[in-house]
């Protein structure tokens, strides 16, 4: 007799499925902050029962669907009244200050100013239900401790330092505008609009806004005005394995998202921020995606130059060719081995004196000689092995730091996950290079 065929068996199966379901996702819609947010959004024309906030074991906070969605179906439609844009700022108490300030501030600073002011207003803020569900802290590189940034791989480490400089300079350059708002506050504006407050607002906008192009206004600088904060919708997490269509619908005056795939009931609903590797995701959004198919490990120009032959009389000419043809950037190892760009750069560097005149053929992807192929693959293997050793060294350092710095555990865990994926990619890539070498020797 087959098991689980009767009513009792079906009930037992449902209990088993529910147990598995409840262990990796927990409904959060009963929490006060979400109740207040849904009520606030309903007053602005948004009333959706198909998506509920939940806590997921692997992705953290997100949205779970209470019904199945078919491919092409509308999964969320957020009315324009719910969106926080520069138009919101101009129609607020800050509008007159923004309009008369010269030179004009950027749309970004206008939004940052509004977020900081509304968070400071607390119970008096009309946007309090939304402010209350925004993250209190972020893990973008600009928020990481300096000792954590030093653990990042290149070029992410350099970009992280550049990001920090951008936010610091933004704060310094905005101080005079912040000072003009003193009459709105009882506290000193330097306290209200301090660096940490701007960092929080900048991260909120950088990580949570959707693209929405607005007409150019004279009261703003010429920087693109393309930001819109979308309450509730911004609870949707990223997955590199889904495709969606997202845009503001001029006819319905709503920001809408449609899924390109079938979504089963009671699962986390994802959107895709774009085909970004994990370094880009960490830089822009402060997280990484597990098993990200777009992830690669970058080979910096400095590492490449370490393996360029110093005694090669044509070395400078080769380096000049690489620079002229933009082959110093985006050199990578991936799950399918070294990239075409990396191998092309190495093949050019490995050209013998008697082969140098064929450098244009290298750029076209032609095979020059078995000697050149073998030499370039050997150097690729050496670079890959060097990156593996460096990654393992950093992972050992992270392991020790996690024992000694409990307060930095979250930041260390994030970088550790990035480095572990790098290690997997490099080890896979090294195996592929060895197989390629075996095939030609």
From TrEMBL:
> Which Gene3D superfamilies does this entry report, sorted A to Z?
Rubisco LSMT, substrate-binding domain, set domain protein methyltransferase, domain 1
UniProt-listed PROSITE patterns: SET (PS50280)
The Gene Ontology biological process annotation of the record reads: inflammatory response; methylation; positive regulation of inflammatory response; positive regulation of interleukin-6 production; positive regulation of tumor necrosis factor production; regulation of cell proliferation in bone marrow
Write down any Gene Ontology CC term. Answer: nucleus
List UniProt keywords, sorted A-Z.
Cytoplasm, Inflammatory response, Methyltransferase, Nucleus, S-adenosyl-L-methionine, Transferase
Q: Where is this region: Disordered?
A: 1-24
Q: Where is the SET domain?
A: 49-274
Q: What is the main EC category here?
A: transferase
Where does this one sit in the cell? Answer: Cytoplasm, Cytosol; Nucleus
Reaction(s) catalysed by this chain, per the record, are: L-lysyl(20)-[histone H4] + S-adenosyl-L-methionine = N(6)-methyl-L-lysyl(20)-[histone H4] + S-adenosyl-L-homocysteine + H(+); N(6)-methyl-L-lysyl(4)-[histone H3] + S-adenosyl-L-methionine = N(6),N(6)-dimethyl-L-lysyl(4)-[histone H3] + S-adenosyl-L-homocysteine + H(+); L-lysyl(4)-[histone H3] + S-adenosyl-L-methionine = N(6)-methyl-L-lysyl(4)-[histone H3] + S-adenosyl-L-homocysteine + H(+); N(6),N(6)-dimethyl-L-lysyl(20)-[histone H4] + S-adenosyl-L-methionine = N(6),N(6),N(6)-trimethyl-L-lysyl(20)-[histone H4] + S-adenosyl-L-homocysteine + H(+)
Enzyme Commission (EC) number: 2.1.1.364
A single Gene Ontology MF term assigned here is:
histone H3K4 monomethyltransferase activity
Compositional bias (Basic residues): 1-17
Quaternary structure note? Forms a ternary complex with TBK1 and ZNF268; the interaction with TBK1 is ZNF268-dependent and leads to TBK1 monomethylation.
Per the record, the similarity remark reads: Belongs to the class V-like SAM-binding methyltransferase superfamily. SETD4 family.
| Protein name (Swiss-Prot/TrEMBL) | SET domain-containing protein 4
Q: Which organism is it from?
A: Pelodiscus sinensis (Chinese softshell turtle)
Q: Which gene encodes it?
A: SETD4
């Amino acid at each position: 007799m087959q098991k689980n065929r009767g009513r009792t068996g079906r009930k037992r199966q449902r209990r088993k499925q529910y147990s598995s379901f409840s262990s990796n996702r927990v409904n959060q819609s009963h929490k006060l902050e979400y109740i207040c947010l849904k009520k606030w959004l309903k007053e602005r024309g948004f009333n959706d029962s198909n998506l509920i906030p939940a806590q997921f074991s692997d992705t953290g906070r997100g949205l779970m669907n209470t019904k199945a969605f078919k491919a092409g179906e509308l999964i969320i439609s957020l009315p324009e009244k719910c969106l926080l844009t520069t138009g919101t700022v101009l129609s607020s108490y800050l509008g007159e200050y923004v309009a008369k300030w010269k030179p004009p501030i950027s749309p970004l600073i206008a939004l940052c100013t509004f977020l900081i002011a509304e968070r400071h207003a607390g119970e008096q803020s009309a946007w309090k239900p939304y402010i209350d569900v925004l993250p209190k802290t972020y893990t973008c590189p600009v928020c990481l401790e300096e000792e954590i940034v030093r653990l990042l791989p290149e070029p992410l480490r350099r970009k992280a330092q550049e990001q920090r400089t951008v936010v610091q300079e933004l704060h310094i350059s905005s101080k005079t505008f912040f000072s003009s708002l003193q009459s709105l506050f009882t506290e000193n504006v330097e306290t209200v609009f301090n660096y940490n407050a701007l960092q929080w607002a900048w991260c909120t906008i950088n990580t949570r806004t959707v693209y929405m192009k607005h007409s150019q206004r004279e009261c703003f600088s010429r920087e693109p005005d393309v930001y819109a904060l979308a309450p509730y919708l911004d609870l949707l997490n990223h997955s590199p394995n889904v495709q969606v269509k997202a845009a503001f619908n001029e006819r319905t005056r709503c920001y809408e998202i449609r899924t390109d795939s079938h979504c089963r009931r009671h699962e986390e609903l994802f959107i895709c921020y774009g085909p970004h590797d994990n370094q880009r995701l960490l830089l822009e959004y402060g997280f990484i995606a597990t098993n990200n198919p777009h992830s690669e490990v970058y080979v910096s120009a400095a590492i490449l130059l370490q393996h360029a032959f110093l005694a090669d009389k044509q070395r400078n000419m080769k380096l000049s060719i690489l620079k002229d043809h933009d082959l110093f950037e985006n050199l990578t190892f991936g799950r399918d081995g070294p990239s075409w760009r990396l191998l092309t750069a190495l093949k050019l560097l490995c050209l013998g004196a008697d082969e140098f005149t064929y450098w244009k053929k290298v750029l076209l992807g032609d095979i020059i000689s078995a000697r050149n192929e073998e030499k370039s693959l050997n150097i690729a293997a050496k670079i890959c092995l060097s990156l593996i050793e460096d990654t393992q060294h950093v992972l050992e350092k992270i392991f020790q730091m996690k024992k000694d710095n409990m307060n930095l555990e979250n930041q260390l865990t994030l970088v550790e996950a990035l480095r572990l994926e790098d290690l997997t990619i490099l080890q896979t890539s090294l195996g592929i290079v060895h197989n390629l070498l075996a095939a030609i020797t």
